[in-house]
Give the backbone structure.
Amino acid sequence: MTEKDFIPKRYSESMEHGSVSWEAPSNIALVKYWGKKEHQIPANPSVSFTLKNCRTITRLDFSKKENQSDFDFEIYFEGNKKEDFKPKIKTFFERIVQYVPFLKEYKFEIHSENTFPHSSGIASSASGMGALALCVVSLEKKLNPEMTEGFFRKKASFLARLGSGSACRSIEGDIVVWGKHKEIQGSSDLFGIKYPDEVHENFKNYQDTILLVDKGTKEVSSSVGHNLMHNHPFAEARFAQAHENLAKLKPVFAEGDLKQFIEIVESEALTLHAMMMSSRPYFILMKPYTLEIINKIWNFRKHTGLPVCFTLDAGANVHVLYPEKDKVKVLEFIKNELVAYCENGHYICDSVGDGAKQLSDDN
Ligand code: PMV
């Protein structure tokens, strides 16, 4: 498929007003996306676990308007009108309007809320852009009821990508690949797909406990970080490594080899941060407690033999990953030894989920 396949032809229906509502989850990458080309095309493929509990719920109210010269929308977050969210949404609309040309024909009200605290340091852009993209494609489906379920999901992921790259992995569950990889059939730079190959029982309902080490906003945004991969001395080797790690994960997913899984996932997390530390300008997003937690996890794993590991996103928080069967023991370890490093003792218990869900659809 190419971008052109997402440009609609004619719509068979018209719609005066209505409302659609979706919830979309956050996701955590195992092989990381870091570095992009124009139009949010990733420099390397990535794979993620879709989460279950960290979600954004968005309702899009729409009514037809006379003047079609510009976008017309208001955004409410957790009940409050948010003027400061508008520029980001406007940029998103500008990027996607050629694929959903009806955007200027409607006046919109966007009502959004997160199931996780806004100031948790958890990026809400993946779940937020995912939910909004799904609402927009839902409206398009009303104008073109023939749209198939498969195309619907691809288009939602395609649009979400234009909002925030990793958001394209927040439509499907439970494992999602984004970025063309020669050994993964159907993989594309344009949208995320559900991982199509065999997945062992060990990974079913995998747990992710998110330790909130630093709830503040990041000093360096992801978009700045991605851009620093241009002219990065290790960029080409890093992009090649991501391809290799994804290829290595295939037999790991199929056979349930947790030892290999841990090695790949932890190495990916540290490599992501190594890229930040070796870019110009260089920067560090980990905090002292991030390292304390990593060391505690390594000690715990060594002494108990339990397959618990960590990953990081572009921040100081630590995602602790482990199989469901070890939940009781690992949670006890987290409570006894790791919670002390969390800001105000806060952490979020999550696990792998099935992807976005439609909540309502009223005309
Ligand atoms: O989607 P963005 O532009 O916020 O970038 C996300 C980058 C990482 O979270 C660090 C890695 C990833 O693949 O999600």
User: Anything to note?
Assistant: The pocket of PMV is lined by residues 29, 32-34, 46, 123, 125, 164-166, 222-223, 226, 272, 313-314 (CB under 6 Å).
